[in-house]
Every structure is written in C-alpha cells, then in structure tokens.
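Onboarding guide, step 5: your first structure request.
Type a short instruction followed by the sequence, for example:

Predict the 3D structure of this protein.
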Amino acid sequence: MRVNKNGGFTLIELMVVVAIVALLAALAYDNYSRYAFRSRRVDGQNLLTNIAAAEQRYYTNYNSYTSTIAGTTSALGMKTDSERGYYSASANVTSAGQIYTLTATPVGTGPQNKDKCKSLTLTDKNKKYQTGDTSNGACW
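The system replies with structure tokens like these:
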C-alpha cells in the first residue's frame, strides 16, 4: 500500500518564489522612484516659469530685470521657495538689467536632492538647462 505525502512546498521552491518577488519589487521601486523625481520636478519648473512671468511684467514697467525675487523690498513680491517646498530659486541679472538667469535648486536634504537633473535653469531667452544629466527623462 502506498502512503500519500502531504502536499506542501519544499524550501527550494519557496526560496525561488521569494527571489522572484524580490526582483519584481526592486524593479517596481526603481520605476516608482524615477516617476516620483519627475513629478516633483514640476514644482521647480512652475517656480521658474512664474518668476520669469513676473520678471517680464517688471521689465515692461522699468525697462530692466530685477534680481530681488522675495522680501519686503522685492519688486516681484514672490517667494523663493516652490509651492511644495522641493526647490528654492535665485536670480542672476547681468548687462545692466537686460539679461536674467533663474535657477531652481533642490532644497537641503529633501527627496529631490537625489534627482539626476539637479538644478534647473531658465533664461530671459526661454533657454532651459539643468546641471545634471537626463538619464531620468527630459528635465524640462
């Protein structure tokens, strides 16, 4: 007479399943992280385009750009931090107020600091740059 073994998993089968799940989780996490960086980058892009629009309005009135973005004496009356707090902006005005370069830099030790695009830059000629690489999609 034959005795049936109770059904179950061997340790090898269980380890193969665990390895497959770990591999899938690693791939999913990597893709999620890249997506999160791209979605948070919009915060810096919006900050720069809003400041650029304010600079253009200022230029219309005073025939020059200003490097003072925020503060009580600011002509632009804007904040230097982005809406969600991932980026901080600065302005560099040259050539007697006729050329500006705006830069959005990831804030401190925040989650956006690990983004490969690093800082985003926008000029008065609407040229868009980044200090890092574009391996995580176009920075702009």
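Each response can be followed by summary notes, for example: Residues 11-130 form one domain.
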